[in-house]
Amino acid sequence: MKNFLLVIFLIISGSVQLTMAQNKPPIAAKKPKIDKLHGETRVDNYYWLREKTDPEVISYLEAENAYTDSIMKPYEAFQENIYKEIVGKIKETDLSVPYRRGNYFYYNRTEQGKQYGIFCRKEASPNAQEEILLDLNEMGKGLKFISLGDIDISPDGKKLAYSTDTNGFRQYKMFIKDLETGKTFPETRERITSIQWANDNKTVFYVTEDAQTKRANQLYRHILGQEKDDLVYEEKDELYGLGVYQSSSKAYIFATSSSSTTSESRYLRSDDPNGSFKLLMARQDGHEYYPDHHSGDSFYIRTNLEAKNFRLVNVAINDLDVKNWREIIPHREPVTLEGVQFFVNHYVVYEREDGLQKMRVTDLRSGSVHQIQFPDPIYAAFPNANAEFNTSVFRFSYQSFVTPNSVFDYNLDSRERQLLKQDEVVGGYDSSQYNSERIYATATDGTRIPISVVYKKDLVKDGSRPLYLTGYGAYGASNPATFSVSLLSLLNRGVIFARAHIRGGGDLGQTWHDQGKMMLKRNTFTDFINCAEHLINEKYTGKDRLVIQGGSAGGLLIGAVINMRPELFKAAIAEVPFVDVINTMLDETLPLTVGEFLEWGNPKVKNEYDYLKSYCPYTNIAAKAYPNILVKTSLNDSQVMYWEPAKYVAKLRATKIDNNLLMLKTNLAGGHGGSSGRYDRFREVAFNYAFILTQVGITQ
Q1: What are the CB-based long-range contacts (under 8 Å, 24+) for 199-205?
Q2: pLDDT tens digits for 168-199?
């Protein structure tokens, strides 16, 4: 092994050949698979990479890893320095702010050198003796991966239902722990997606997913000690996924089926676990509604019926017809109503306006309304742990590009806020050294596209600064301006960081999503290109200093834009990228495919196929020059199968005409989010940053 870089790596099958001494990349064999669709013949030379159990496939991935390591080897010390910088800035031994639920205070804590958090509680007082509920460091011994899924504590605080994934495929197994004895009950259940206790402390409702498609489709009732569970409801429509949750009041349990455009809910009293779930309102195409309960005999419903960005209504439980709805919050064109949380005397509305989260408080006694104010021009605000219903204190988290995550208790009556904790940046941090701003690019159709930007102060806009631009733009997901301690390693070296809030995401409401999906998906890509051009034209950076990144659906974004405008970027990182759009969407046996038809389209439909074909990154690889590219994937990814990025790299390497870098790095023990341990994730970030910085000429 000492002479590893001097030997010729040879796969006997002849599919891969790599001369490490010359840093030559592996060349994947072409094994044509021919398909016909809509009168066209499609040839996929790298379909064989799907065979995960084939040693030839694993050998190819390992050869790609070896090649990537050889390219990055001169920067190993630099990468290690970045890793140490990141770890050196975090408080390794730390704990979250305890939150109250019943008679206990719950919190997570970390210990220096340990990969995973420890879930604990104390009875009656935060100063009482600690009780460790789950220690993933112990649970994960001997495992390369462990991740905690859903978790729910019984109302009496004596039992804990939780689920874990131990290979990264997001396939979770449920366990139930007796918190009085510390022992785990013998019954376990597989493929769990959501868990909810009933109020009797012995009945657990849980949802399972289909073993092949991973669609959450069956709701079961489990009574402790019983071997057989009752199938309560099965969602048979392949466009819909199923979830179970409890109302704010804890009085009702809801089972909600939803597609990306439509939902349907059933309800059951939490103190009647053996009863039958009742249908609240039959599904109607395009109607999304999400119920909650505060008190008495009525439901609150967040609905998009005649309200693109949602409104809030109230209706009697015994007469749920639409004609009886009483409007509480009307639809407002510029404001998206994203959620509502009820407390005994108040409710808090989570809204989004002009790309920013807002929180609005209503006093149910007086009807008075006020908004919680936030100081930064761009920021991220989220509800924190609010497990108690009978309280006048609302807990939220606040952060921005320049403000570390901060946890506040907000008195809903007095409107006073108390800072409970701000994440410490070890070694000191002065937010005044950095500046964040919101700027706008103009899309090809005249639409203004927001860009959030942060940089070390004293910026001179002469085009000489390197810039790291990221984007996502899918599923109506918003991309808020969150704080990242690791990002300081870029900012402190003069790199500007920018986040493009492109269409397809949800930053500016449901219409923003609609304008970047299905037959309007190309808007997502042209928006991103327009943002890049704006940053160059405004002299934030230059083409030779611009690095872009996106993951998952954001990886599709990266693949599409470097096909469309490769000369615009110095380098690109595509992480777990959804780049083989047509082949994936044609395979309904793959996890989650059918439900995605409403986001991307169905290639079995001719006009939708033609549109998908116009931007699919794998399909549109061409014999031209591309920027330097790093592609990352995980062998056990269930959201974007590893073979998509592997095929993409193989085809791109065989087709492009430049000598720029093209690297594939496969995490052989990770999932969609990479590794599960925090230190392992920091190393993955350090690797990315070493790539970014060396691409723009920074090596220390």
Answers
A1: 199/155, 199/250, 199/270, 199/271, 199/273, 200/271, 200/273, 201/154, 201/155, 201/156, 201/158, 201/159, 203/273, 203/274, 204/152, 204/161, 204/176, 205/232, 205/244, 205/253, 205/255, 205/273
A2: 999 999 999 999 999 999 999 999 999 999 99
Among residues 519, 617, 631, the alpha carbon closest in space to that of 564 is found at 617
**From the candidates 293, 294, 513, 672, which is the catalytic residue?**
672
DSSP label at residue 198: -
Mean pLDDT, range 466-479, rounded to an integer: 97
- Marked catalytic residue, from 154, 259, 637, 675: 637
pLDDT-derived band at 19, boundaries 50, 70, 90: very low
Q: Check residue 177 and give its pLDDT.
A: 98
Quick check: 10 pLDDT over 70? no
Rounded to an integer, what distance in angstroms lies between the CA atom of residue 298 and that of residue 314?
7
Whole-number pLDDT of residue 12:
29
Single-letter amino acid code for the residue at 258:
S
| CA–CA distance, 468 with 216 (Å, rounded to integer) | 37
Residue length, the chain?
700
Q: What is the rounded distance in angstroms from the CA atom of residue 603 to the CA atom of residue 612?
A: 7
Whether pLDDT at 400 is above 90: yes
- Which candidate, 681, 604, 652, places its Cα nearest to that of 37? 604
User: How many angstroms separate the CA atoms of 377 and 323, rounded?
Assistant: 42
User: Using one digit for the tens of pLDDT, what is the confidence trace for 114-169?
Assistant: 999 999 999 998 889 999 999 999 999 999 999 999 999 999 999 999 999 999 99
SS3 call for 181: coil
Residue 420: other Cβ atoms inside 10 A: 15
pLDDT on residue 22 = 52
Task: Tell whether the torsion through CA atoms of 201, 272, 342 and 308 is positive or negative.
Answer: positive
Q: Which of 552, 634, 638, 676 is labelled catalytic? A: 552
Which amino acid is it at 222?
A: H
Residue 334, token pair as written in the block: 């510029």
- The model carries a pTM of 0.95
Active site residue 672: yes
The question of whether 354 is a catalytic residue gets the answer no
Question: Among this protein's residues, is 680 annotated catalytic?
Answer: no
